[in-house]
Amino acid sequence: MSELSIPHLLAWSEYETGYARFIDDSWWQQIPQGAQLNQLLQSPHSVKSLSQHVTRLFKVQSLGEPTQISPELVYLAYECKINWMSVAQILGFMVISVPYGNEIDGKEKQKFLERLGGEDGEYAQCIYQFAAHEKLKIFYKALTFRKLRLLNQQPLESILQEASLSAWALLSLALPKGLSQRIHLSLPADWVSEIQNSRKRFAQSEEAVKGIRELSPWIIQQINTLHNKIH
After folding, report:
1. Mean pLDDT throughout 5-29?
2. Phi, psi at residue 194, to the nearest 5°?
3. Would you say residue 230 has pLDDT above 60?
4. Pairwise pLDDT comparison (131 vs 158), residue with the higher score
5. In the chain, domain spans
6. Could you tell me if 74 and 8 are in contact, meaning their C-beta atoms sit under 8 angstroms apart?
7. DSSP class per residue in 126-170
8. Angle between the 177-185 and 47-58 helix axes, to the nearest 10 degrees?
9. CB–CB of 126/226 below 8 Å?
10. Which of 17, 140, 147, 154 maximizes the CB count within 10 A of its CB?
């Protein structure tokens, strides 16, 4: 990782003291007088106090100084702030690259690539790259995902969403709690409910938790490298 830039440091600072500005509307609906409080975000002077209010309400942990955190995590926070869904989608491609790599039927592989936009498309390139990494089989095993021929029988959008949310849920177990809490508050509450259910299930597996903690630095590095290439 290169030296952290000003935009990355500012993003970390926003996550620490000003993250109320990117909390999803679904969470404001759960907060007493949330609609009125949300309107106060139009004033820059209210952002810090509102962030403190949300911190107390949801018991959000501190992040700490970026100089005390690995650069990879600071970069990940920045990418999630820009577009969390694209980050989760990269994780989803990591997962489905394993059944693609394991499939021996060339027709099934070709069919799947066509559904992704063709073998020369950007999504296919992600699949090619990840399929070569043996270490992702740990990721795939924890999620107990399906074989490629079964994936070809399901709607592509639902496959990608399931893989992305499940993979993020597993990765989030290896992130500092304060960071995952802030990121989750920026997502729709119903997505977070699904993520939390998966987190609870994964947390019961020592193998899954150990595997993702060992693999997370490499995964985060891949996300930070690929994020701008496919979006």
Report:
1. 86
2. -65, -40
3. no
4. 158
5. 65-230
6. yes
7. HHHHHHT-TTHHHHHHHHT---HHHHTTS-HHHHHHHHHHHHHHH
8. 110
9. yes
10. 140
Residue 195 in contact with residue 163, Cβ under 8 Å?
no
Give the predicted TM-score (pTM) of the model: 0.86
Beta strands in the chain (DSSP E): none
pLDDT at 50 over 60: yes
Residues ≥6 apart with Cβ < 8 Å to 35: 28, 29
* Predicted confidence (pLDDT) at residue 158 exceeds the cutoff of 60: yes
- Given a cut of 60, is residue 20 above it in pLDDT? yes
Structure tokens at 65: 């100084």
Residue whose entry in the numeric block shows the structure tokens 């390139």: 125
Q: Which of 78, 84, 79, 85 shows the shortest CA–CA distance to 160? A: 85
Residue 187 gets which letter from DSSP?
Answer: S
Task: Determine contact, residues 139/98, Cβ cutoff 8 Å.
Answer: yes
Q: What is the residue whose two structure tokens read 């990721």?
A: 139
